[in-house]
Write a structure and sequence with these properties.
The protein has 526 residues and is an alpha/beta fold. It has a domain of 143 residues. 37% of the residues lie in helices and 11% in strands. The chain contains 19 helices and twelve strands. It has an eight-stranded parallel beta sheet with strand order 9-6-3-2-1-12-11-10. It is globular, with a radius of gyration of 23 Å.
């Protein structure tokens, strides 16, 4: 029986109390391994959140990335990113030596060098796997490898085979593999025998990732910090998901997409945006009660306390572009699964806590779907200024059932945005917020805290008052993204310099942190 709406007429009604948090992808944590990992720096970050009176850590998708290094184009909707594995943990378990992992830190603690990481980390991971197996496959956490494999077999087996096959065929997309390798069931015995060890290695990497993630999640729970995860609505074309479940996607007989996702031409792009993700056969998903989506959400809820779904409007209608295409002009709007999908989700997860990414073009039908689900949407303050009082992102137009950000991972930092904005926007910001614009990053943080939206989330770069040099992602730019990292000592400075205490006091004043005496702290420049 599908449950009906809540007492307010919506399917979901979970957001009530006010709170605050920080948006920081784990790859941006400091450390000596060439990229942020699930190590002590992650725990120190949780300590910072607690000291600042915050309740949330928001991350981007945690899956394994490929070309372009984007967490929104992963090889799996279920797997974890092996780059995030803390190799110091392997040193402590005598699976690696300190000398062996030292080359990872020779580039310093600056931006991520994904090329060097690819060259250096994969051989180390393989060496750790070989030694783990020789040692009798001991447990890496509170769950042994056999129990992990059994519990995650539904996605782990196809994912591990996909990665082993991809490595075997020189990294080619799966539709370019020999025909005998384009399906799970069709793999010949000789290929299975050849790649058996590679498959086991990729299973080990997942076991290590999830063992470490479980420890970080437990540390967050001890501090009263919830983790907000993130899943893209679409999956990558070259992914284990499409390879193992071709009937759920608009794919041709050879595995190539018949049509792909994107957005139509608009003021910002005359050609629109061609994302390249395969589209769902929503009728096939509906026929089995959205079983794959339920499995995907269950896996994410096992990792996180709240799930943000990217591109919510695609559940109402999505831009379908026939493949191949040079740009997104030739597409058309096609109806999505609508409210029926969310009824099925509520039937399976009646207490689900989901945030809808509803930025961009919001038609009346999308707004009606959001209202019907009851899911909180998003607002970005950088989108609020330069127009008139009707702008939906201005603080006086925000909704209580929502999440407000100064900017997100796709935006420039607030200081960078303001430096590039025109004088009309500067004037609007100054007059609306009654500020002089000299500390606009903190002006936006205070505006987000004071807003009616139940959750306020601040990018870490804004807490550090950083400019465009700290931008994490520039949509439409194919390379050079996802590289920014915290410098060693940045988090500690926010505590010792009084910023964390200031945020705790700001949270108390605006009802976003536990009540108590206002700490003696200050924001930079105040």
């Amino acid at each position: 029986m599908i449950p009906g709406p809540t007492k307010n007429g919506r399917l979901f009604d979970w957001l009530s109390s006010r709170s605050a948090g920080v948006l920081l992808h784990p790859t941006s944590l400091p450390g000596t391994q060439g990229i942020g990992t699930l190590d002590g720096a992650a725990v120190r970050f949780l300590d910072l959140l607690k000291a600042a009176g915050m309740s949330w850590w928001q991350v981007c998708p945690l899956g394994p990335t490929g070309y372009g290094d984007s967490p929104y184009q992963c090889f799996s909707a279920f797997a974890g990113n092996p780059y995030l594995i803390d190799l110091q943990d392997f040193v402590a378990r005598k699976l690696l030596s300190a000398e062996e992992i030292a080359p990872l830190g020779r580039g310093g603690a600056g931006p991520v060098d994904f090329g060097a990481l690819y060259t250096l980390k994969w051989p180390l991971l393989r060496r750790a796997f070989d030694r783990h197996r020789l040692a009798g496959s001991p447990s890496l956490g509170d769950q042994g490898p056999d129990a992990f494999h059994a519990g995650q077999a539904a996605w782990l087996e196809p994912y591990a085979w996909f990665r082993a096959l991809k490595d075997n065929f020189g990294g080619k997309a799966w539709w370019e593999w020999p025909a005998e390798a384009r399906s799970v069931s069709g793999l010949p015995a000789r290929l299975r025998a050849k790649l058996k060890d590679e498959v086991a290695a990729h299973q080990f990497y997942q076991y290590a990732f999830f063992s470490q993630w479980r420890r970080i999640r437990a540390e967050a729970g001890k501090r009263g910090i919830g983790i907000i995860g993130d899943i893209p609505i679409f999956v990558a074309a070259d992914s284990a998901d499409a390879w193992a479940n071709p009937g759920l996607f608009e794919l041709g007989a050879d595995g190539r997409p018949m049509a792909v996702a994107g957005v139509p031409p608009d003021y910002f792009s005359a050609d629109g945006q061609l994302w390249g993700n395969p589209l769902y056969r929503w009728d096939a998903h509906a026929a089995d009660g959205y079983a794959w989506w339920k499995q995907r959400l269950r896996a994410t809820f096992d990792m996180c306390d709240v799930v943000r779904i990217d591109h919510f409007r695609g559940f109402d209608a999505y831009w379908r572009v026939p493949f191949p295409a040079k740009n997104a002009r030739s597409g058309e709007w096609v109806p999505g699964p609508g409210i029926g999908f969310f009824r099925a989700v509520r039937e399976e997860f009646p207490q689900a806590r989901i945030i809808a990414e509803d930025l961009g073009l919001m038609t009346p039908s999308v707004e009606a779907l959001l209202e019907g689900t009851g899911l909180p949407g998003m607002a970005v303050l950088q989108f609020a200024f330069g127009g008139d009082a009707s702008n939906a992102y201005l603080p006086h137009n925000l909704r209580r059932n929502g999440v407000v950000y100064p900017g997100t991972h796709d935006n420039d930092t607030t200081l960078g945005w303001y430096a590039a904005a025109d004088e009309k926007t500067h004037d609007h910001v100054r007059r609306y917020l009654r500020v002089d614009g000299k500390e606009v990053g903190w002006d936006f943080i205070r505006a987000a805290y004071a807003a009616v939206s139940s959750i306020a989330l601040v990018p870490m770069q804004d807490l550090l008052s950083l400019g465009s040099e700290a931008r994490l992602n520039s949509p439409g730019k194919p390379e050079g993204n996802w590289r920014w990292r915290l410098a060693e000592g940045d988090m500690e400075k926010l505590v010792s310099g009084g910023t964390a205490a200031y945020l705790a006091g700001l949270g108390e004043l605006t009802g976003r942190s536990p009540k108590g005496p206002v700490p003696a702290g200050k924001a930079p420049g105040i």
